[in-house]
Amino acid sequence: KQEVTQIPAALSVPEGENLVLNCSFTDSAIYNLQWFRQDPGKGLTSLLLIQSSQREQTSGRLNASLDKSSGRSTLYIAASQPGDSATYLCAVRAGANSKLTFGKGITLSVRP
Amino acid sequence: GAGVSQSPSNKVTEKGKDVELRCDPISGHTALYWYRQSLGQGLEFLIYFQGNSAPDKSGLPSDRFSAERTGGSVSTLTIQRTQQEDSAVYLCASSLDGRVEQYFGPGTRLTVT
């Protein structure tokens, strides 16, 4: 059974800092991995999707990497801003036409 | 363009009552998913519809839960004889097909009193 772990559960950083959010998964046979952002009381916003054949994806100040063999992904946020404060979740898909398995998320607070 | 919409946004119901939650996926998306998010449990998969194929119901926690998708578009999640442990945010997502990015709706917060 696939398990996705995100540690730590919460993180507080000063504005402007570059930071890395970690995600690990137990079964390396994944189809793709997706990073989401969730604001309090809201749904999930997709940030980046990495296919199993890819090593990384970039969107603006965000960069996600994938090391499938070691069961790890990282989300790099450059020059963090208070507006980046949210919960960040990673999720893996075992195969095409299958569900996402989620980590419990990392709640990020960026202090002005 | 319009995203995934869900209704109601909030639902308070008494234990033992039945509830129906609705999801309108993005137009043209053939795949539709239901998840549940509760405190301490994270996001749990409930059910997945893909086109005209039989749905993947492997995540439904009990036979009190059921879902249907009519005409390959709108989906309804029904919970019968609600229990307090059913209190959670129910999220719906859709994707163009079963392989690509999933887009989530805002969720329905269900409170069972």
Structure commentary:
The complex is a heterodimer of chains A (112) and B (113). Chain A is 0% helix and 55% strand. The model of chain A has no long low-confidence stretch (mean pLDDT 94). In chain A, strands 2, 4, 5, 9, 10 and 11 form a six-stranded mixed β-sheet that branches. Chain A is mainly beta and 112 residues long. Chain A has strands at 4-5, 10-14, 19-25, 32-38, 44-51, 56-59, 62-67, 72-77, 86-93, 100-102, 106-111. Chain A is globular. Chain B has 113 residues and is mostly beta strands. Chain B has no helices and ten strands. In chain B, strands 2, 4, 5, 8, 9 and 10 form a six-stranded mixed β-sheet that branches. A four-stranded antiparallel β-sheet of chain B has the order 1-3-7-6, with no helix packed on it. Chain A binds chain B through residues 31-32, 34, 36, 42-46, 49, 89, 91, 96-105, and chain B through 4, 31, 33, 35, 42-45, 48, 50, 56, 58-59, 91, 93, 97-107.
Please give the structural blueprint.
The complex is a heterodimer of chains A (112) and B (113).
Chain A: E1 4-5, E2 10-14, E3 19-25, E4 32-38, E5 44-51, E6 56-59, E7 62-67, E8 72-77, E9 86-93, E10 100-102, E11 106-111
Parallel strand pairs in A: 2-11
Antiparallel strand pairs in A: 1-3, 3-8, 4-5, 4-9, 6-7, 7-8, 9-10, 9-11
Chain B: E1 5-7, E2 10-13, E3 19-24, E4 31-38, E5 42-50, E6 65-69, E7 75-79, E8 88-95, E9 103-104, E10 108-112
Parallel strand pairs in B: 2-10
Antiparallel strand pairs in B: 1-3, 3-7, 4-5, 4-8, 6-7, 8-9, 8-10
